[in-house]
Structures are given as C-alpha cells and as structure tokens.
Amino acid sequence: MFFFTIRRILASVFVLFASSFLVFALCAASFDPLAKYYTRQPLPSPEFFENLKEQLGLNDSFIVRYFRWLGHALTGDLGNTLNGTPVTDQLLPRLAVTGRMIIAAVVIAVVLAIIVGVIGAVRQYKASDYVFTFIAYTLIALPVFWFAALLKEFVAGGVNDLFGSQVLYTIGEETPGIGAYGTTSEIWGDRLGHLVLPTVSLALLTFAAWSRFQRAAMLDVLGSDYMRLARAKGLTYRRTVLKHGLRNALIPLTTVVALGIGTLFGGAVITETVFVWHGMGEYLISSGIEQEDINVVLGWLLVSAVFVVLFNLIADILYAVLDPRIRLG
Amino acid sequence: MATTQATTDTAGATPPGQSGSARTGNVEREFGVQARSQRQQIIRRFLHDKVGMTGLTIFLLLLVFGFIGPLVDGKDYATQNQNAQSLSPGKGGYLLGSDAIGRDLLAGLMQGVQRSLFIVLLFVVIAFPLGLMIGALAGYFGKWLDSVLMRVVDLILTVPLLVVLIVVASNFPSSRTPLGVGIILGLFGWMDLARIVRSQFLSLREKEYVEAAHAMGASNARIIFRHLIPNTLGSLIVWTTLAAANAIILEASLTYLGFGVNAANETSLGRLVSEGVQAASTRPWLFYFPGITLLIIVLSINLIGDGIRDAFDPSNRRVRA
After folding, report:
1. What interface predicted TM-score (ipTM) does this complex get?
2. End-to-end CA distance of chain B
3. Inter-chain residue contact B160 with A138, CB threshold 8 Å
4. Spatial separation of the C-alpha atoms in residues B321 and B315, rounded to whole Å
C-alpha cells in the first residue's frame, strides 16, 4: 500500500509536469501578449516592440520560456497580469469563493445521489424508480444556465416573497462592501444566502448523473452471491441492503465523485457566470481570455490541472483502500 | 480474394455480434421456433423497449419539425419585421411570438433544431473516427503504443474540455458558425470514446476467435475491422447517442459564454436558448420555448441511447437479492 501510494504520487507529479507543458503550449499558441498594440493608431515603432519583447522575454526560445515560467510557478509566482498585479494574489481568494460553492454542492449531490440511487435500485421498475429516472434524465438534459435562470426567476422570487425579505440572492457571492462593516457572523450569514441558489443548481445537475451511477452499482451488488448469503443467514432485507450492499456499491461512486470534484473546479464556469460570482470561472473569462492575458489563463489552467490530477490521485488511492481486491501491483 | 473471405468467414471467426446473420436468419428449426440472429434480437428488444421507442418517436417528430416544418410554415427566421417586435405567442400570426427585432420564434426554433443537428452530425463525423482509431490502435497493439496514446488522452483530460473549447474558439473568431463550432467540438470530443474502445479491445483481442483469425492468416487490419469493431458496436452506438446529447449542451454552453455560434443570421438551439435567458422575466416565451425544445431533443437522444444499451445487454440485471 505504501509503495503503491508513493508510486502513484510520483506518477501524478510527472503527469502534472507534462500537463503544465501542454497548458503552456496551448497558451503560447493561442495568445500574443503584444496583440493589443498591433491595433493601436498610430502603430508603435518597431523599437517599442523590440523593447517589449525583450522585457517579456519573448525573444527566448519556447523551451526556455516554459522552464522559466515553470520555475516561477513552482515557487508560487504565476507572473503578473497585464495590469501588473501578481496572478497568485488574485487566484487564491477566487479559489476560496469557488471552493465554497463546490464543496457545498458536492456534499449535497453525493447525499442525494446515494439516496436516489439506492431507492432506484432496490425498487427497480417500480413507480418510484421511474419517477427518479425521469427526473435524473431531465436534469442531465438541461443546460446549466437555463436551469439556473429558472431558479433565479421563480425559486428566488417565491422564497423572498414568502419571507417578505431578501433571503436568497441571485447575484454575487456576498453583498458588495459587507466585508467592511459586517461582523463575522453577518458576513457568513450573507454569504450563506448568496450560496444557496448556485449550490442548488450545481448540485442538482451533478447529482443526476451520479445517481445513475449509484443505481447501476447498487443493482450489480444486489445481484451478487454474498447478498444472497447475507439474506440466507437471516439478516433482514433492510440490513443486508444497507450494511452489505451499500458499502460495496459506494466504491464506484467514490471514484466518480473524486474525479468530478477535480473537473468541477473548471466546470463551474457557467454557474459562476449566471450568478455573477467573482470566482475562478469569471476570472478565466473576463480577466483572462477576453483580455488575452496569457499569465492569467496559464495560472488558471495550472491550478485547475493540479486539482484534476490531485483528485485523480485521491480516487486511485481511495479505490485501493475501499476494495482490497484491487491489486496494488 | 473471394475465397479467402469465405474461408475466414466460415472458420468460426464470425463475431458473435452477428453470428450467422442473414443466412440463417429465417431457417425453420425444430419445434417450429424461428431462429433469430443476434442482430434481429437486438432490434426486437429495442423495438419492445418503451423508453427507447419513446425517445425515437420524439426524435423523429423533432426531425420532422426541423426539416419539414419550415416548408409548411413558410417563414424565414432572418426576416425582421419592425411592426411585430416582441409579440407574445399567438399574436399577429406569430405562433410562438417574436423576438426584439421582429423575427419569428417558431421559424427560429425550426432553424435552430436543424443547425444543432448539423453541429451534432459534424461532431460525430469527426470525433467518432478519431476516437475509434486511437482507441483501437492503443487497445489492439498494446505495449508502448497503448501507454503513449493513453497518457496523451490523460493529459488532454487534465484541461477542462469547456476551457479548451473557449480558448480555441476565441482564437478563431471567424469559426463562430455552426460549421466551425461543430468542427471544434469534434476535434476535442473523442477522448472518452478512445478510452472505451481501448478497454473493450483489450479484452476482445484475447478471445479465441481472434486467435483463430490470426491462425488463418488474417491481417491486423482485417481482424480490427471485421472482428473487433463489430463486437464493440454496442458501446459505439451508446457512446454516439450520449456524446451527441452532450454536444448539444456543450454547444449551448459555449454560445452562452459568448464563444459559440455568433455569426449574423446564423442560429442554433444554443444561441436561441442563451439569448432567451436574458429575457426570462420580460419576454418569457423567448426563454421557455427554446429551452424546452433543447430539453426535449437532448432527452430524446438520451432515451434512445438508454434503449440501445438495454437492447445490447440481454442479461439486463433483473435480479433482486
């Protein structure tokens, strides 16, 4: 187990290394830091471009630039934005904002997926199974931004009318400026109100696919011999399902969820756009891609890749822990 | 050529996926039971599957709506009517209402369905051969080729698909047509197919009939195309349906973020939906109808996929502990 873990960590570091190269190549081919000067009227002198190139190190070869960037990135320095502020300082608070939403969404989604998946499997081909299946497929078929707009329009409006005050917020991750005057509990209460809708929309759409997974895994388990043995030994049906069945049926879900969290950090882009959250997604689109700011995009992609690889690693290790039959060879 | 084909075919090398297909299909057996080939059984199971058939029916209706509807309706989405701006449904001959610059929403939806299906078709035509080829090479030849190809796939997967699509689309602003978006989606949507094909090939290539084919002197290409690919057909079809449904949503998301279909007088379901989101409270029909159309089309494709999966999997786990 120990050596397996070590080997997987080493492999992950290597994947991350290669991934950073891929990311750098993608960005180097995509963005030209000088692009905004080309359209200037009048066009700056050639000396100006030469100076700038020298300053930004663009005259060096691709490989040299890559290793310089990587060297800085390893020390936590992701370079500066076009405006001259460090990317790292901007990414971290945004990571916290997005992380808040994702952690809440994943917790809700996992709980829902397990409940719905198990009920669907145990009551296969009964009315409840069909209802859950239908709901799951509908949710999978919905575009996030449309569903989110629906939530904003109706759920938020309805709940706020019901309480007669602004309980759910449709925009932003906190009321602007509350950090300056609110107490800690006020700030977090406010953030909680802002958190509900994005989390619900993200959780509902993620849970749908996961519940199908959980259902399939549970069905597999229910048909297995050790379940029959457990029943034959006289355990109650409920007990066999919950104690013997669920435990084993959770293994595939663990992997799916672990991989899902990694990609969610990148995939929350739309949810953040709809709810105007100043998180990772907004940062990538409005500060990075629209401004053609290569360091922002690079930093973002690197952070996202770290999460994907990290949770990939966690998934592999968890898998081995949960199912001892997995060969650690 | 004809003789070698005959020998390899009769050498017990015919894949089970279509064992003795058309020839033995209608032969009368003992007890008067008609023998059915596996292919017939699969089609039969699919036709008897309520879920899959519902999906197929809805999908066909949508095809009629998208391709025959415009002929019946006779309106053009590009026509802007200054006297009929933001009409609610049913008014002034606009069955589903009109948008802010007086374009008919119904005509837009029909065109949107058409264009979205075009995007999906393009996506499948590009992604399917790519994924199949890379998965087949990795799974069949194994060893270093497998490691290299799969590590490449892993690497690409470390970058979120949506982000790659955004970066690529923002570099080719002129690609914001259904054609361009379809190509971009196709070029970056084959990784999971490659993984699926590879994993199936890994187990299939150890089967006896592959060994038999080898012994008969069949070439690698022949084994791959005649024996292995037909046996992965089930997964291939299921992947295609699910990926197609996914592509529609991806296109919509891309367009919503401002990197999808954007050219003048071009529309797609994604564009209609993403434009409609801004009008959710003021002109709800622009919000609801495109969204619901998108939901129905994705749902129907998913249901078809589900039906096919069940049809290909006869064991179908109807067990209860």
Report:
1. 0.82
2. 54
3. no
4. 16
